[in-house]
C-alpha cells in the first residue's frame, strides 16, 4: 500500500500552488494514471512520492507518505545527465541487483523488452542509445530490483509498438500498485483502473484534483456527462432567477410607486403599504440567500489552441516533396541499420515512420531533413525528439520565439503562449525549468508561427497529456501541407497519417 496524505506543493520561483490538501491511497493491484495539462505538477507529484528530496530544488512540499514494507521503483521522465554519460554496462553495474539475478531470468527479461542478450554489457554510452532503448534500459534496471510499487513517468515515451503492447500487459498484470503518467491514450485505456486528474483553474492560481476509481474512458465520459448536467442545471436555475427577479422588480416598483402617491390624509393605507414594502424587501433578502446556494457553472481547464493553417501552407497535389534513395543507413560508428531505402512523397501526404527501437528512424529523419531544409521551393521545419537540440536551456520562451525582441512580435507571442496555457511567469522561466510537455508546446508554437508547408516531426505527441492529444491530432490531421513523422502513438498513426512505413533492415515497407 502507498498512502499520500495532506500534500501541499507550490512552485518556488513564482509561488504558484500545484497541489493543495492532496490525498491518495493505492492498494496492491491498483493501476492509477495521473492526467492533467502540461505544467500542472504531474511529474512533481510522482517524484515527491518516491523521494521528496527530488523536488526540493524547485518546489516547496509538505505532506505525509506512508508505504510500510513496500519497495518503490521510480522511472523518471528523463535520465539524469550523469547517467547518460555512463556506458550501458556501467549503468547496469551500478545497481547491485544486476549481479544477483540468475542469467536465465535476465535473459527472459531482455527477451520481454526485445533487447539482445549482450545489451547490458555494451560499452556504448547511455546517451547514444535511441530514446526507446534508454527507456527500456531504465525500466529493466528497475524491474531487476523487484519493486512492489511502481512510479513511472512516461514509460511509453519513445518505445516501439511491440514494447508498448508488452507494457500494457505488464502494467495490468503487475501484482503491486502502479502510479504512472503517460501520453499514450491507448495504453491508458488498456491498463489504468484509477484516474488522478490534476487541474489548474483561475489562471493557474487554484489547484484542483479528482481521484476516481474508474477506467480512463469511463472517467472522461462520466466527467463530460456530469459537467453537461451541472451546466444545464446551472443555466436552468439562472433562467428561473431572471424570471423571478423580473417579477420581483415589477412588484417592488409597484409598491414603491404606491407609497409615493399615497395621500397624507390616508395614514391607514400608508401603514399597509409600509408593511407591504417590508415584506417585499424581506422577500428580496431571501432571494439573495437562495442565490448563494445556486449550482455553480462547471469549471475546467480550457483546451490548448494553436494553428497550422493558411494558404501559404498548402501543398499542390502533384508536387514532388521528396524522392529519396539511400543505399545504406548507418550509425555514426558505421554499423549498418538498413539498406536500399527509397521514399517518394507527393503533395499533402502525412507520412508515419514506425519500426523497432534502434532501427534508425531518427537517423533517417535527420538525413531527410538535411535534404529538405535547404530547398527554396518548399519551406521545411524540423521538430526533434530531443528538445534540447533546438531549445537553449538558459533562454526563455519569449526570447526563443521572438529573437528580434520587437515589441509587437512579443505581444503576439505572449498571446499564443497564453492560448497554450502558459502563465506570464512561465513565459519568462528558463526553458530548462519547464516541463517536457511545456517545452514541446514551445516547439509547436514555433511551427505555428512559421509559414512551413513541410513538417518533419520526431515523436510529435510525446510528453503531451491525453487531454492535449486529441487537439494536437486534429490540428495535424487538418494541416494542408506535408508531414513526415516518426511516432509510436497509435492514435496519432490512425487519425493523422495517410500512409505508414515500417523501417526494417531491408528498407521501408
Question: What would you say about this model in short?
Answer:
This protein is of the alpha/beta class and 509 residues long.
Provide structural commentary:
With 509 residues, the protein is an alpha/beta fold. It folds into three domains: 2-223, Rossmann fold (3-Layer(aba) Sandwich); 228-291; 311-508, 3-Layer(aba) Sandwich (Rossmann fold). The protein has 17 helices and 17 strands. The chain has a six-stranded mixed beta sheet with strand order 5-6-7-3-8-9, sandwiched between helices. A six-stranded mixed beta sheet has the order 13-14-15-12-16-17, with helices on both faces. The protein has a three-stranded antiparallel beta sheet with strand order 2-1-4, with helices on one face. Helix 7 packs parallel to helix 8 (185-191) and helix 9 (216-261) runs antiparallel to helix 10. The longest helix has 46 residues, at 216-261. The two termini are 47 Å apart.
Amino acid at each position: 500500500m502507498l498512502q499520500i496524505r495532506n500534500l501541499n506543493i507550490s512552485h518556488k520561483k513564482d509561488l504558484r500552488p500545484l497541489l493543495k490538501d492532496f490525498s491518495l491511497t493505492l492498494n496492491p493491484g491498483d493501476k492509477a494514471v495521473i492526467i492533467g495539462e502540461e505544467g500542472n505538477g504531474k511529474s512533481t507529484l510522482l517524484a515527491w512520492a518516491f523521494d521528496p528530496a527530488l523536488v526540493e530544488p524547485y518546489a516547496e512540499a509538505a505532506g505525509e507518505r506512508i508505504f510500510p514494507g513496500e519497495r518503490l521503483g521510480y522511472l523518471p521522465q528523463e535520465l539524469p545527465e550523469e547517467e547518460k554519460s555512463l556506458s550501458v554496462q556501467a549503468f547496469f553495474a551500478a545497481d547491485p541487483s544486476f549481479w544477483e539475478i540468475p542469467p536465465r531470468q535476465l535473459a527472459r527479461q531482455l527477451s520481454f523488452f526485445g533487447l539482445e542478450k549482450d545489451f547490458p554489457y555494451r560499452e556504448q554510452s547511455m546517451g547514444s542509445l535511441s530514446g526507446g532503448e534508454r527507456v527500456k534500459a531504465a525500466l529493466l534496471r528497475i524491474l531487476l530490483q523487484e519493486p512492489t510499487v511502481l512510479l513511472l513517468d512516461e514509460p511509453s515515451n519513445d518505445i516501439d509498438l511491440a514494447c508498448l503492447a508488452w507494457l500494457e500487459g505488464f502494467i495490468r498484470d503487475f501484482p503491486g500498485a502502479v502510479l504512472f503518467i503517460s501520453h499514450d491514450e491507448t495504453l491508458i485505456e488498456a491498463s489504468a483502473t484509477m484516474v488522478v486528474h490534476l487541474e489548474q483553474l483561475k489562471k493557474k492560481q487554484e489547484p484542483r484534483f479528482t481521484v476516481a476509481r474508474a477506467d480512463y474512458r469511463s472517467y472522461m465520459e462520466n466527467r463530460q456527462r456530469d459537467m453537461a448536467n451541472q451546466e444545464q442545471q446551472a443555466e436552468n436555475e439562472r433562467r428561473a432567477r431572471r424570471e423571478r427577479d423580473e417579477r420581483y422588480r415589477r412588484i417592488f416598483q409597484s409598491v414603491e410607486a404606491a407609497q409615493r402617491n399615497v395621500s397624507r390624509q390616508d395614514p391607514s393605507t400608508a401603514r399597509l403599504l409600509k408593511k407591504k414594502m417590508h415584506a417585499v424587501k424581506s422577500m428580496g433578502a431571501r432571494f439573495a440567500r437562495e442565490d448563494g446556494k445556486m449550482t455553480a457553472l462547471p469549471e475546467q481547464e480550457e483546451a490548448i489552441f494553436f494553428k497550422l493553417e493558411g494558404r501559404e501552407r498548402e501543398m499542390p497535389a502533384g508536387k514532388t516533396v521528396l524522392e529519396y534513395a539511400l543505399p545504406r543507413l548507418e550509425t555514426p560508428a558505421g554499423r549498418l541499420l538498413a539498406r536500399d531505402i527509397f521514399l517518394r512523397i507527393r503533395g499533402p501526404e502525412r507520412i508515419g515512420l514506425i519500426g523497432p527501437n534502434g532501427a534508425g528512424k531518427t537517423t533517417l529523419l535527420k538525413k531527410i531533413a538535411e535534404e529538405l531544409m535547404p530547398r527554396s521551393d518548399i519551406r521545411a521545419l524540423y521538430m526533434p525528439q530531443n528538445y534540447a537540440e533546438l531549445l537553449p536551456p538558459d533562454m526563455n520562451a519569449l526570447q526563443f520565439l521572438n529573437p528580434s525582441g520587437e515589441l509587437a512580435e512579443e505581444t503576439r507571442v505572449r498571446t499564443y503562449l497564453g492560448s497554450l496555457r502558459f502563465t506570464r511567469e512561465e513565459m519568462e522561466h528558463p526553458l530548462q525549468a519547464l516541463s517536457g510537455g511545456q517545452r514541446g508546446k514551445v516547439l509547436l508554437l514555433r511551427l505555428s508561427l512559421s509559414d512551413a508547408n513541410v513538417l518533419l516531426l520526431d515523436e510529435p505527441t510525446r510528453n503531451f497529456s491525453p487531454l492535449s492529444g486529441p487537439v494536437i491530432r486534429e490540428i495535424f490531421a487538418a494541416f494542408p501541407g506535408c508531414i513526415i513523422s516518426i511516432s509510436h502513438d497509435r492514435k496519432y498513426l490512425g487519425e493523422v497519417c495517410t500512409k505508414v512505413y515500417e523501417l526494417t533492415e531491408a528498407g521501408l515497407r
